[in-house]
Structures are given as C-alpha cells and as structure tokens.
Amino acid sequence: MLETNSIVIYPNPGTDIINIVSRKNVNIEVYDLLGNLLIVKDNVTKLDISSLPAGIYNFVILYDSVKISKKVVKQWKSY
Question: What local confidence, expressed as pLDDT, does residue 64 receive?
C-alpha cells in the first residue's frame, strides 16, 4: 500500500507552478471545493495552476491503482 508521504507536492501554498515528486509517474485531477473537475494531466511532474483563481483545491493523485487526495492552496500572485 502506498504511504501518503511518498508523494510530495510543493510549494504549498503556490502561485504558478506546482511540483509533484514521486517514485513513479502519477496522474493528477484538480477539483475546486464544489467538486468541479478543473484539470486532468497524465504523467505529471509539474503542474501550471496560474490560470486558476486563488483558493483551495483538491488534488487527486492517481498512483498505480491508488487514489490519494491532497489540498493545495493557490495564493494571489503579488508583484
């Protein structure tokens, strides 16, 4: 069974690019808090979230046949 700490998502909170570090390729589904599917990506190591508004998102990570859910915060980008 996969342990949750074997996948690292950073930076969290983030503004533009989220990095995904794991031992194997992962697929990502990004949902808003209402459960709307916003992004689907296969074999991901970096994910561009710059088009998403600031808020909290649920990242569903598909790893082999296991699903792991992690919350990611998108911050406002300050210039």
Answer: 80
- Give me the amino acid identity at 66: V
Look at residue 51 and give its three-state secondary structure.
coil
Given a contact cutoff of 8 angstroms between Cβ atoms, the answer to whether 61 and 28 are in contact is yes
- Closest C-alpha among 63, 48, 45 to residue 6: 63
Both tokens assigned to 9 = 């998502």
Mean pLDDT of the region 20-37: 94
Measuring CA to CA, which residue among 26, 33, 23 is closest to residue 72? 33
pLDDT of residue 2: 43
* pLDDT value of position 37: 98
Distance CA 66, CA 49 (A): 23
